[in-house]
C-alpha cells in the first residue's frame, strides 16, 4: 500500500458531487489532511471537518486561481471543476473547462509545491453520441469537430490535452508535476442532483414506465464512491512516481484511465431499478416503448418550443441529445485501471443504487 501523503490538497469544484466523495475518502484515509476547495458555490456539499477550507473562486479568473493556489500551496490537485452538464451557456465550457485548466496549470507551476494533478475528464471525449461505444479502451481516438459536435466534450478534450502536455512540465523532468486523467462512465451516488436526481424525480412522478428505443443497450455506470477510490489510487501512484524516471511499462503519469463498476446494465433497467428503490416498481407488462425516431421527433419539437418561448435562455427537459444518450450502447474497458492502478470497485451496482436512492429519500424526509 502506498505510504505517500496527499496533503495539502486542492480540489477544484470541491463542492460538487464527485468532489464531495473524493474529499470524504481523503478524510477517511487521513483525518488530519489539510484540504482546500475552490468553487463558485460553496454553500452545498460541505464537510464539517475543520481541515476542509472552502474558497469562493472562479476558475475562469486568473486572479482567483492564483489566490487560492497561493493559499493552499498544494502537493496534490484533484481537478474536477466543470459547469453543470447541459445547463451552462456555451461560453462557460471554454472559460471554465479549458481556460480554467490552463490557469490552474500555470498557478501550479508558479507555486512550486505541486507534485500531482489528477484530472476528472469524461468518456464522452471518445464518443460522438451517435455511435455505439463497445468495450472501448483508452486508446480509442479523441474525437474532434466536425465528428464531435458536443461543446462539453470538445472542451473536456482540450482540457485533457493541456493536462497531459503539462506532465513532467512538458518534458522529461523527474521532478516536474505528474498528471493523469480519469474518464468515468455515467456516475451515480449520494448528492447526485444531476443524472440520478432526475431519475428519482421521474420515478416519483410515475413516469419510469416510459422507455425510449428497444431497451437492449448495455451501459456502464460507476458508483461515485468507487470513482473517488480511483482518484485516490491515481494520486498515490503519481506521488510514488514523482522524482523518478518514467517507467517503460505501465506508467501512471501522462495516462488516461477508464473507470466503471465493471458491471454493465441495460440503460432502462437501471432507470426501473431506481424506480423500484423509490417504492414505485414497474411491471414488465406496464413498460411503454417509444420508438427512437418518435423520441427524436419529440425532442426536436421540445427544443423548438422551449427556444421559441424563452428566446434560447432555457434548456428543455427533453432533447435529441438526451434521447440518443439513453438509446446508445456505452461500455468501457477498465483493464488498464485494474492493472496499473490496482482499481477494483468495492461497492456493487445494487448496493450503490440502494445507498444512493436511500439518501434522496432521507433528504426529503429531513
UniProtKB/TrEMBL annotation:
<dbReference type="InterPro" id="IPR036291">
    <property type="entry name" value="NAD(P)-bd_dom_sf"/>
</dbReference>
<keyword id="KW-0560">Oxidoreductase</keyword>
<dbReference type="InterPro" id="IPR050177">
    <property type="entry name" value="Lipid_A_modif_metabolic_enz"/>
</dbReference>
<protein>
    <recommendedName>
        <fullName>3-beta hydroxysteroid dehydrogenase/isomerase domain-containing protein</fullName>
    </recommendedName>
</protein>
<feature type="domain" description="3-beta hydroxysteroid dehydrogenase/isomerase">
    <location>
        <begin position="10"/>
        <end position="280"/>
    </location>
</feature>
<dbReference type="Pfam" id="PF01073">
    <property type="entry name" value="3Beta_HSD"/>
</dbReference>
<comment type="similarity">
    <text>Belongs to the 3-beta-HSD family.</text>
</comment>
<dbReference type="InterPro" id="IPR002225">
    <property type="entry name" value="3Beta_OHSteriod_DH/Estase"/>
</dbReference>
Amino acid at each position: 500500500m502506498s505510504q505517500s501523503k496527499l496533503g495539502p490538497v486542492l480540489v477544484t469544484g470541491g463542492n460538487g458531487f464527485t468532489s464531495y466523495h473524493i474529499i470524504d475518502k481523503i478524510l477517511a484515509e487521513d483525518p488530519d489532511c489539510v484540504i482546500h476547495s475552490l468553487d463558485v458555490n460553496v454553500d452545498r456539499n460541505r464537510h464539517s471537518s475543520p481541515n476542509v477550507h472552502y474558497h469562493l473562486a472562479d476558475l475562469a479568473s486568473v486572479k482567483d486561481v492564483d489566490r487560492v493556489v497561493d493559499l493552499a500551496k498544494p502537493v496534490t490537485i484533484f481537478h474536477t471543476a466543470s459547469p453543470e452538464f447541459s445547463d451552462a451557456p456555451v461560453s462557460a465550457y471554454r472559460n471554465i473547462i479549458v481556460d480554467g485548466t490552463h490557469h490552474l496549470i500555470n498557478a501550479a507551476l508558479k507555486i512550486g509545491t505541486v507534485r500531482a494533478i489528477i484530472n476528472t475528464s469524461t468518456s464522452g471525449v471518445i464518443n460522438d453520441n451517435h455511435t455505439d461505444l463497445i468495450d472501448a479502451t483508452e486508446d480509442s481516438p479523441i474525437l474532434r469537430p466536425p465528428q464531435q459536435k458536443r461543446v462539453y466534450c470538445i472542451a473536456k478534450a482540450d482540457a485533457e490535452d493541456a493536462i497531459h502536455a503539462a506532465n513532467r512540465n512538458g518534458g522529461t523532468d523527474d521532478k516536474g508535476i505528474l498528471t493523469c486523467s480519469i474518464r468515468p462512465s455515467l456516475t451515480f451516488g449520494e448528492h447526485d442532483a444531476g443524472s440520478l436526481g432526475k431519475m428519482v424525480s421521474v420515478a416519483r412522478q410515475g413516469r419510469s414506465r416510459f422507455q425510449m428505443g428497444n431497451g437492449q443497450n448495455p451501459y456502464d455506470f460507476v458508483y461515485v464512491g468507487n470513482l473517488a477510490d480511483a482518484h485516490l489510487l491515481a494520486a498515490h501512484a503519481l506521488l510514488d512516481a514523482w522524482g523518478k524516471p518514467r517507467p517503460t511499462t505501465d506508467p501512471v503519469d501522462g495516462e488516461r484511465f477508464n473507470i466503471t463498476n465493471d458491471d454493465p446494465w441495460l440503460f432502462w433497467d437501471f432507470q426501473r431499478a431506481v424506480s423500484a428503490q423509490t417504492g414505485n416498481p414497474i411491471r414488465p407488462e406496464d413498460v411503454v416503448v417509444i420508438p427512437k425516431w418518435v423520441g427524436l421527433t419529440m425532442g426536436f419539437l421540445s427544443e423548438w418550443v422551449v427556444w421559441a418561448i424563452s428566446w434560447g435562455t432555457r434548456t428543455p427537459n427533453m432533447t435529441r441529445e438526451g434521447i440518443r444518450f439513453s438509446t446508445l450502447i456505452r461500455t468501457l474497458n477498465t483493464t488498464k485501471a485494474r492493472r496499473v492502478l490496482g482499481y477494483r470497485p468495492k461497492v456493487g451496482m445494487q448496493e450503490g443504487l440502494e445507498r444512493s436512492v436511500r439518501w434522496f429519500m432521507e433528504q426529503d424526509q429531513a
